[in-house]
Amino acid sequence: MFDVMIGHELSRWAENSLEEWVEAVEEARLLPELQIEIDLSAAGQVVLSPNQSEILETFDSFIEGVESLASTFSSIEPELFPQPEIPEEHLFALDSELVMSSKERLRRVLLEDLQEALKVVDAYSAYEELIAELTPPESAEEVDLNIVRDFLSQCAQRLEEVGRVCPGGIQTRLFFVDTSIATRKLSAMISQASTDCLLAMSQELQRNTEDIRDAYRSLDKHFNTPENDYEAERLLRMVENIDKQTLDPLEARISQLVEVLDFLDTSMFLISLDLRVEIYDLRTKAPDVRTDFRLLCEELKLIFEPPAEDEESDE
């Protein structure tokens, strides 16, 4: 008798409480603010965190927890009346139909409420492929700054677009959807692409500077005094054509070094002081080397092309 009365009251209380809680979820009341996030997976895909299935399972687990808790209430009559013929049983169990209908109602309201969050996920997902296509231009000895400018401009445009997708997140009836993580990570990927481009340019700038420096060092060897007439004559033939064949291309490359350096400065990319000094030293050295070779050429011509003797007319 006692078990029946107490079991009935507990059952009614538990089922009413469950009904009220489900209604509170349906009407978006009596709940603390629930926060979910839009994030990037390890594979770089935009995802809801926790995802939709995990959210549904979490709410299901609340009901299952109540159902499990109900099974822990045992009959009290065996303790009040310690008679061997009175078996120990559970006081009550939740109505299985109520449990199923409660889960279905929660699932319905959650799926409807999450639609808005999933639309934001789709909006961010649209940039997955666009960001993956942000491949820096290939390194080349002669950098096409127009191509680089277009690439950096594209990165800046994507960065601005991502920042406008859903700044500050959104509030649905049941959840606050935090978009700051997705925005930050996607923006970081775009920024990394532009940084990689500038880094590749700086590395190519370093290599080209070293190549030009080595080329000028090899030219310095020609200023040594020829040991014989054969070497002197061969040197003369070489220096006569050195302007167009060697010096002009080197000076053109130096001009591009300076242009790339200025571009990197404008792009706020840090260049080492040593590299900066070396480039400006090369720019200063170029006209001096040209002058030295011109003087050398004139000296060699004096050796192999003596001035013509004055012709005196016989009277």
Tell me what the structure shows:
With 315 residues, the chain is mostly helical. Among the domains are: 1-32 and 51-114, no CATH class; 202-304, Methane Monooxygenase Hydroxylase, Chain G, domain 1 (Up-down Bundle). The chain contains nine helices and four strands, in the order αββααααββαααα. It has helices spanning 2-26, 52-70, 77-80, 96-132, 145-165, 180-220, 229-240, 242-266, 273-304; strands at residues 34-40, 46-49, 170-171, 175-178. It has a four-stranded mixed beta sheet with strand order 2-1-4-3. A hairpin with a 3-residue loop joins strand 3 and strand 4 (175-178). Helix 2 (52-70) packs antiparallel against helix 4 and helix 4 (96-132) packs antiparallel against helix 5. The longest helix is centred in the middle third of the chain and has 41 residues, at 180-220. It is rod-shaped and about 120 Å long.
